Amino acid sequence: MIAKLAKTCTLRISPDKLNFILCDKLANGGVSMWCELEQENFFNEFQMEGVSAENNEIYLELTSENLSRALKTAQNARALKIKLTNKHFPCLTVSVELLSMSSSSRIVTHDIPIKVIPRKLWKDLQEPVVPDPDVSIYLPVLKTMKSVVEKMKNISNHLVIEANLDGELNLKIETELVCVTTH
């Protein structure tokens, strides 16, 4: 998803979380995003060491499509290892152990060029303050919604989402020729 939103992103690595950060300038039509993943949901073993005990974080800038492509090879992996390396330039090395038909394994390695972000720029990449919401909507199964929205986007570029306290959710598109609403 991130690869579709922006060419590059920032990966923040801390002892308990991974954050993907996009912070383009909104005034220029850019996209901002803060995605937080608990590392324990993805890794059996996780070791990281930041700059110091007080700044136990690592900030990297990388091309999101390169990371996406490397992780796609890991879908049926027996093991996945991600580590920072320096192979003539800083890299995020993704090693994927795949089983073959003969029950032997092979290792596929991807070296993703990265830029290590200096500590003086970390203040620009902090988690945004988001006010408490006035309204929360629990959505139906996303697979179903995706199917409906993809069909609607063929008709219009704009989608209106309506919800109420009675548990009703409407997805609506309007053009000069047609008005379509899904309840």
Structural descriptors:
183 residues, mainly beta, Proliferating Cell Nuclear Antigen, seven-stranded antiparallel beta sheet, 3 helices, globular
What would you note in describing this structure?
The protein is mainly beta. It folds into two domains: 1-124, Box (Proliferating Cell Nuclear Antigen); 142-182, no CATH class. Helices cover 13% and strands 38% of the residues. The protein is built from three helices and ten strands. The chain has helices spanning 2-5, 64-72, 142-152; strands at 8-13, 17-23, 32-38, 58-63, 79-86, 90-99, 105-116, 160-163, 169-174, 179-182. It has a seven-stranded antiparallel β-sheet, covered by helices on one side. A hairpin with a 5-residue loop joins strand 8 (160-163) and strand 9 (169-174).
Task: Map the helices and strands.
Layout: H1 2-5, E1 8-13, E2 17-23, E3 32-38, E4 58-63, H2 64-72, E5 79-86, E6 90-99, E7 105-116, H3 142-152, E8 160-163, E9 169-174, E10 179-182
In the predicted model, the low-confidence regions spanning at least 5 consecutive residues are: none
CATH T-level topology of the largest domain: Proliferating Cell Nuclear Antigen
Instruction: Return the domain count.
Output: 2
In sequence order, what are the helices and strands, one letter per element?
A: HEEEEHEEEHEEE
